[in-house]
Each structure stands twice: as structure tokens, then as C-alpha cells.
Amino acid sequence: MKAAILNSATKSLQIEEVDVPPVLPNQIKIKVKACGICGSDIHFILHGKMKATYSPCIPGHETSGEVVELGENTSRFSLGDRVVVSAGTSCGKCVHCLANRDNLCEEIGVLGFNQRGGFAEYLIVEERYLHKLPDDIPYAQGAILADAVSTPYHAIKYQGDLKPGETVAIIGCGGLGIHAVAIAKALGAGKIFAVDIDKGSLDNAVSYGADEVILLEKNMQVGKILKEKSGGIDLLADFSGFMPNIENSIRSMNRGGRIVLVGIGRIKLEIPMPFFIIERQIRITGSYGSDRRAIPELIQLYSEKKLDLTRSISGIHKLEEANEYLHALEDKKGNPIRFILNPELG
Ligand SMILES: [Zn+2]
Ligand SMILES: [Zn+2]
């Protein structure tokens, strides 16, 4: 089959013919119809920031496609079924996995990084990673449910514990944060503030339901501005990884407020006013990926017409154009949200 292979020497993807492995018991083979290019692929492929644990490495962790072969012991799918593949991999046996909290698994991994991903004509995965995709959700929109939409969903709903009517602030409105805005809206948030350093990302946020935007400039105290504009934030989710924003936002939090850290930065987080946090019972928590609950619940929100991802698909391209669109995403050329690769094109 044709696949986009990581070449870590040239920091790019190379289209090559590779063998398709046999379908083992408990596995299902899908013909890839769409695979999203994620911001983490930029770090992984263009900057060599993360190392693949297998070779040849085929990235891509936002995959949808059609079931074309069923391994022994599989039972939930039929040939021709439309499916989405979870981005996260896990052991499937530990206490967390058995409780559907697989993103807490000790052996957590990500498709593409730890095993072959979706930048290829075919993908073979364990049946437990698959979710049925209804006919009315296009493959491209289905694919991004795997990470771009499910990661913020987990952050907002489960780690952030959003309740209807609450005031929400989203810092960082790129591929993930933008969907945090959409999800907060879908789950009935009151007022939504979107914060970013990029004007185009804030325009996207407005189109997804942000009530007010803050264009962040250097040394700006985002917390102070949020406090003035909102009177108090109940849920703040950070997708930027820039910890000074968190530090100065603590004072903008309401009693019982939650701060959810999703963006991964290398700056240390200092807690400047512990008593403020203690007395107001403010929770600071992390959120990583999503668990098995996310994709089916997102499909439900979609079917209730509470979630429209049409604008999230910035273009559907050939596998051969992967490098070009990795760079276009990094350069934010044309204000993209998600570019999709479809190996069936070209
Ligand atoms: Zn991703
Ligand atoms: Zn596990």
C-alpha cells in the first residue's frame, strides 16, 4: 500500500510502498478515507520533537475509514461499516481501561507515534479502538473527532466539569482550543471568552460561538482583563501551554472554579496565591487526550445538531501533499483549522 513514511533525517514525509501486515485476531482493517493533520504532527515530523517507537513510522492519529477486513474474535463491526479510530492506544486490561478511562492507562500511547497511523491507504487496529460513524457525518469531520474535538471535549466536560450557564475562558484557539469553544457552546456555557495571540484564530472562535475575544499581546495580564470583562470565570481551559497566563488568571476565577491545563509547555507553573485557591476551592487539573466515552457522546451531540464541524475542515488533500499542508498548518496559511489527507485522492 501507499503510505507517508516519516524520514527523521529530512524532517519530512516520504511517499513509499509498504507491506500491509496480516490482520491478527481482535484486529480490523480499514480503508482510510480521511486523516487529519494535527499540530502535534508538526512537532513530531517537522521538528523531530518526539521519537517514534517503531519503524517504518507512519504518522496520523485522526483517522476515519471503511471496514474492509475483520480479524478473528471481532464482533461489533461488519464489512463496509464507516468508522472512526481513537487516537489513543492503551493496554485494554488495566483497571482504568476496563472502566472506560483508557487515557489514564499506564501504557497510554498515540496512533502514529507508537504504532502505524492513518497517513496510509490502510490501517489495521484493535477492534476496541473503533467507533461507528453515522452516514450523515462526512469522513473528514468524523476523522477529527479522534483528537481535535475529543481532546477538548474531555477537558471541558470531564476534567472541567462544565455546568450550563457557566462563564468559560479558552486560552489558545488553534486546532484543539477552537473546538473547546464549540463544545462549551454545545454543552450550554453562559458566556465564552476566547483568548489568542492570533487574530485569525479569534475570528474562528467567534464563528464557533465565542461571545468575546481577547487578542493577547506580549506581557499582557490576561487574568486581569478576563476579570474586568467577565466579573469572574468558572472554567478556564488552557491550550497554549504558556503558564504565566495561568498564574495571572487565578485571581479571575470564581469560587469553585476549575482551571484545566491541556497545552503542553516547558515553562514552570508557579502558584502565586495558595490561600486564594484554598479558600475559594479552585481546582487546577490536567487533561490528556480523551477516553472511550468521548467519540460516541460527540456523535450524539452532532446528531442533536448541537455541534457543526463544517468550518473545521480547511481542505482535503492527497497523501502526496502532506508536507505542503504540514507547513501550511504551521504557518497558519489561510487561517486553517484542520487539513485532511485522503489517500484515495491522486
Ligand atoms: Zn493530535
Ligand atoms: Zn490500561
What structural keywords apply?
Rossmann fold, six-stranded parallel β-sheet, alpha/beta, seven-stranded mixed β-sheet, binds zinc ion, 346 residues, Quinone Oxidoreductase, Chain A, domain 1, single chain, globular
Question: How would you describe this structure to a colleague?
Answer:
It is a single chain. The chain is α/β, with parallel strands linked by helices. It folds into two domains: 2-148 and 290-341, Quinone Oxidoreductase, Chain A, domain 1 (Alpha-Beta Complex); 161-286, NAD(P)-binding Rossmann-like Domain (Rossmann fold), CATH 3.40.50. It has ten helices and 17 strands. Strands 3, 4, 5, 8, 9, 16 and 17 form a seven-stranded mixed beta sheet that branches. The mean pLDDT is 96. The chain binds zinc ion (2 copies). One zinc ion is lined by residues 38, 40, 61, 147.
State the CATH superfamily name of the largest domain: Medium-chain alcohol dehydrogenases, catalytic domain
The average pLDDT score comes to 96
Order of helices and strands: EEEHEEEHEEEHEHEHEHEHEHEHEHE
The top-level CATH class of the largest domain is Alpha Beta
Secondary structure: helix percent: 25-40%
Bound molecules: zinc ion
What structural category arises from helix and sheet content?
Answer: alpha/beta
Q: Number of folding domains?
A: 2
Cα separation of the termini? 14 Å
Q: From the alpha carbons, calculate the radius of gyration and give it in angstroms.
A: 20 Å
Strand content bin: 25-35%
Shape: globular
Q: Can you count the beta strands?
A: 17
CATH topology (level 3) name of the largest domain? Quinone Oxidoreductase, Chain A, domain 1
Low-pLDDT segments, ≥5 res: none
